[in-house]
Write a structure and sequence with these properties.
This protein is α/β, with parallel strands linked by helices. It is built from 11 helices and 7 strands. It has a 7-stranded mixed beta sheet with strand order 3-2-1-4-5-7-6, sandwiched between helices. Helix 3 runs parallel beside helix 5 and helix 4 packs across helix 5. The longest helix is centred in the first third of the chain and has 40 residues. The model has no long low-confidence stretch (mean pLDDT about 90).
Length: about 290
């Protein structure tokens, strides 16, 4: 009888069954332990990066990340710097939402794209204006990103602070985080940026109000982030104002450009560029358009 036949015989199978059962039990224990560990890691990742508590997941997928690297590199002309800045921006985003109150508005690639790109476009000065801030957390991150480049940002924020996020055509509702949209929350988050955040100017009001504009039009801005009224009319008004207060060479960022949920943004920018302007379109990354003032 050959060895194969011997192993298949009923007697051999009965003799070897205890050994086989022992091996099966050990395999089951190892598999169960691996499943428990994977579940624990998944739950921990979900608590840190999942949508609960902010309404949007911060989990990153390879495809969108590679596209963002390519878009930021196309805008900046430096692939290595683009990859580095996007990674830095992602860590900063997760850290700020872990420590701050509220959240940063927008998808993960959109936020990392803005935070990573603006410093690489070398703004002509360190004066920043953000039109529409929600909880001030994006500005907090931008201050930190610019400081990493050895700059000394000075921040001005314009927002109505209505208690909830306002957008024409949408019904106001409480934020997923449960935190009221107010100046106190913004100040709390800006404190995470250190002295520059604490020194930020905050003007409560709508960007189209003459009094609001007069209060913050006392300087030429090197960076202007337009993220307020998303209607075509509102965006057009903000772009016209941006032209008046942008320093030569300034970077103007138009958020949610090309997002199908907000068609008025692309409509307004395209109309504005056709009508003659100091602004030149540089390109876009993750639903944000970048322009430079002449």
């Amino acid at each position: 009888m050959n060895s194969r036949s011997l192993l298949r015989s009923p007697v051999s199978r009965r003799l070897l069954r205890p050994v086989a059962d022992l091996i099966d039990r050990r395999i089951e224990r190892q598999v169960s332990a691996a499943v428990r560990q994977a579940t624990t890691h998944r739950l921990s990742c979900e608590l840190l990066l999942g949508e609960r508590g902010r309404g949007l997941s911060r989990v990153v997928s390879q495809g969108p990340l590679e596209r963002l690297h390519a878009e930021v590199a196309a805008l900046s002309g430096d692939r290595d710097a683009a990859t580095r800045n996007v990674a830095t921006a992602y860590r900063l985003l997760v850290g700020l939402e872990a420590l701050g109150v509220g959240r940063i508005a927008g998808g993960t690639m959109n936020i990392c794209g803005k935070l990573g790109t603006i410093p690489l476009l070398d703004p002509p000065n360190d004066e920043i204006l953000e039109i529409g801030t929600l909880y001030g957390m994006f500005s907090t991150g931008l201050v930190r990103m610019l400081e990493r480049d050895g700059r000394s940002p000075s921040l001005t924020i314009v927002d109505p602070f209505a208690g909830v996020q306002l957008q024409p055509g949408t019904n106001p509702r409480p934020d997923p985080t449960g935190t009221p949209v107010d100046e106190h929350a913004v100040r709390t988050n800006l404190a995470l940026a250190g002295p520059a955040g604490a020194a930020a100017r905050i003007r409560r009001g709508f960007s189209e109000d003459p009094e609001t504009r007069a209060a913050v039009s006392d300087r030429a801005y090197g960076v202007i982030v337009v993220d307020g009224d998303h209607s075509a009319k509102g965006v057009r008004q903000d772009l016209e104002w941006a032209e008046e207060i942008a320093a030569p060479g300034a970077i103007v960022v138009l958020d949610d450009y090309g997002d199908p949920a907000w068609p008025g943004i692309k409509e307004a920018m395209d109309d504005h560029l056709r009508d003659g302007t100091r602004l030149t379109y540089l390109g876009k990354a993750a639903h944000s358009a970048y322009l430079r003032a002449s």
